[in-house]
């Protein structure tokens, strides 16, 4: 399956970042903790060179706790501050103010020496579509100040949001690069729902997920779908067939409904019902990919 999606408003969003980057002190980038590398836009590193950086690992409660810690250490080695959060529940948000001050310590000290008092830190909030950016802004601000939605591409224009006398946000539309570097990146984005499911082949996508779970999270898979013979399951098709039987996913005439079973396991994964799962690990050497 070839994963591609680049609506025209994303080109505009990239241009918007270029035009406004000189106004900001800090880049706050949201990524999905289940795919911290695939859910980062590679353009942001170039666009925001020289700026203080903070990565928020959103939906960290859905990701593997041990792997979360590996990613936190990875970003630290890159000179990037990181915080684990769940924008929807508010988990981890209290830690952000302290981290923002630490990330912008040089700027704050520079202002102090120049006699500038109470100038707020200006941060740009960036991230790919559907990563939870608007939900984060609303939760962090404590009010519905940014439009939210559960479909890619909801935020269409920029807006400045003053949180308090210390911090202002520049909200931007989510941006996604025009051509994925690898099939794996596109697949990971599709798995977490950053592309419209209508354009995807759900059975093929679910098969890719099952193959990964069999290799890395076999116990969670077995527990969720009552697979007592999980060690005998060697292919995604065998797992899908079992799910059809276990969850009564049949067409007329007792024919296995693989599409229904695929949609079921995808929904279970995205909601965390299979367990806390991370789809990628940081590079072993700690270097940037």
Structural account:
The chain is an alpha/beta fold and 289 residues long. The chain has 2 domains: 8-171, P-loop containing nucleotide triphosphate hydrolases (Rossmann fold, 3-Layer(aba) Sandwich); 201-271, Orthogonal Bundle (Conserved Hypothetical Protein Ylqf, Chain: A, domain 2), CATH 1.10.1580.10. The chain contains 11 helices and 6 strands. It has a 6-stranded mixed sheet, with helices on both faces. β2 (52-58), α3 (65-77) and β3 (81-84) form a beta-alpha-beta unit. The protein is elongated.
CATH level-four homologous superfamily name of the largest domain: P-loop containing nucleotide triphosphate hydrolases
Domains, number: 2
> For this entry, what is the oligomeric state of its chains?
single chain
Number of strand elements: 6
Q: What is the CATH architecture assignment of the largest domain?
A: 3-Layer(aba) Sandwich
Question: What fraction, in percent, of the residue positions are helical?
Answer: 40-55%
Low-confidence stretches: none
N- to C-terminal separation?
A: 24 Å
- Given the C-alpha coordinates, what overall shape results? elongated
How many DSSP H or I helices?
A: 11
| Structural category | alpha/beta
SSE order, as H and E? HEHEHEHHEHEEHHHHH
By CATH, the topology of the largest domain is Rossmann fold
């Amino acid at each position: 399956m070839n994963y591609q999606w680049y609506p025209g408003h994303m080109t505009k969003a990239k241009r918007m970042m270029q035009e406004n980057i000189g106004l900001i002190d800090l880049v706050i980038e949201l990524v999905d903790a289940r795919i911290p590398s695939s859910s980062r836009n590679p353009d942001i590193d170039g666009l925001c060179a020289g700026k203080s950086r903070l990565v928020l690992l959103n939906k960290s409660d859905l990701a593997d706790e041990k792997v979360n810690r590996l990613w936190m250490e990875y970003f630290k080695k890159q000179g990037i501050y990181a915080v684990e959060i769940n924008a929807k529940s508010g988990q981890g948000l209290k830690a952000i103010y302290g981290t923002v001050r630490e990330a912008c310590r040089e700027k704050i000290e520079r202002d102090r020496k120049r006699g500038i008092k109470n100038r707020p830190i200006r941060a740009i909030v960036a991230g790919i579509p559907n990563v939870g950016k608007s939900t984060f802004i609303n939760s962090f601000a404590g009010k519905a100040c940014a439009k939210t939605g559960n479909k890619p591409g909801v935020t269409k224009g920029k807006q400045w949001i003053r949180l308090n006398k210390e911090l202002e946000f520049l909200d931007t539309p989510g941006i996604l690069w025009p051509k994925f570097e690898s099939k794996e990146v596109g697949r990971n984005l599709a798995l977490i729902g950053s592309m419209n499911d209508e354009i995807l082949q759900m059975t093929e996508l679910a098969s890719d997920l099952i193959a990964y779970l069999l290799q890395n999270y076999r116990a969670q898979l077995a527990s969720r779908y009552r697979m007592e013979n999980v060690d005998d399951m060697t292919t995604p098709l065998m797992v899908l067939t079992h799910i059809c039987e276990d969850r009564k996913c049949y067409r007329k005439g007792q024919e296995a409904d693989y599409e229904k079973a695929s949609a079921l396991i995808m929904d279970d994964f995205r909601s965390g019902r299979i367990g806390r799962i991370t789809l990628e690990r940081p590079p072993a050497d700690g270097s940037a990919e």
